[in-house]
Amino acid sequence: LPGLHVLAIAFALEVSVGKTNTVMALNNSNVLLPCIFTTCIGFQDLDFKWYFNLTEMVGCSLIYHGKIKSKASEPILVERNPRVEFVGSTTGKDNNISIVLKNVEFSDAGRYTCHVKNPKEKKAQHNATIILTVVQEMVEADNTVTLIIVGIVGGLIGLLILFMLVKRVVLFIIKKTQDGKKECLVSSSGNDNTENGLAGSKAEQKAPPKA
Question: Is 0.85 surpassed by the pTM of this model?
Fold first, then answer.
């Protein structure tokens, strides 16, 4: 029984609307509502539908209904909303049953559910929902804070570099000054010793007075 359960999961029908289940569209624009399905054992006479605001508590409206005979054939339209266009394909690598909603309005915001039923998998059914948000204009990311942070960091780096340069110049000047003082001290000390030596030599060279 556990093995049969794992096998059933492996062959299960799955429906996906992509990595994220949210879409944002500009008012009066066209928006893509993506949907793909996967099945390991293939499909026959597959039925798929798109619903708007499909919930248990609220009534929904069917906006697209299609059927697919087999992997070798493209979907056949059964029913659709005039503003909905099918843009998918099921004969390629992916079983793509995406649609495009044209000229979206604020009233179009809500939940869009992609529902698939595969008779070949004992009429297995699965669905996925995508949430559409309609806005007047796209909001651009505010880079003000980022620019301020970059400016502060750049200023701190500039001050650090300036401080290091000033420090090097000051140390260089101090070193030169100390070297100059050392030369003066050495020169002065040498002169004093020379004069003292000469005086001593003359004093020593004088003959002692004769008695």
Answer: no
